[in-house]
Amino acid sequence: MQDKEELTTMVKVENRLTNDGFTEDFRVSEGRLCSLNSDKTYGVEDVRIVNFYRFEGETDPDDMSILYAIECTDGTKGTISNSYGPTADTEVDQFLVEVENLGKNLEKRS
Q: What's the superkingdom here (predicted)?
């Protein structure tokens, strides 16, 4: 999937994901995933984390972030990023943990 191109920077990964159809930008507000380009919003049950990528700052190890590739039940695909560690946006973290937990519970029922 990643060919021989080394996906080391967030910009490179974002470009690759855009080429793969992950074109929407998301944020989390009031417990819902919100499109930055439209008025669409999604609950945890409408979202699946397809992949994620972690990055560390070249000069400062505290400058860490994570980029999530997300697909929604209506076919919308996009990304959301967050810091991790003490500077993380707790609302984004909480939403994505709920998405992961819901996915694990659905897999157990299958």
A: Bacteria
In contact, 85 and 98? CB cutoff 8 Å: no
Q: Which residues contact 13 (CB under 8 A, 6 or more apart)?
A: 7, 53, 67
Q: What is the pLDDT of residues 10-44, one digit of tens each?
A: 889 999 999 999 999 999 999 999 999 999 999 99
Cα–Cα distance measured from residue 6 to residue 81, given in angstroms and rounded to the nearest whole number: 20
Contact 33, 95 (CB under 8 A): yes
Reference 65, options 103, 42, 92; nearest CA is: 92
Read off the DSSP letter of residue 36. Answer: S
> Over the stretch 47-65, which tens digit does the pLDDT of each residue have?
999 999 998 866 565 668 9
Q: Report the greatest alpha carbon distance in the chain.
A: 45
Structural contact between residues 85 and 62, judged by C-beta atoms closer than 8 angstroms: yes
Q: What are the backbone angles phi and psi of residue 18, rounded to the nearest 5°?
A: -60, -45
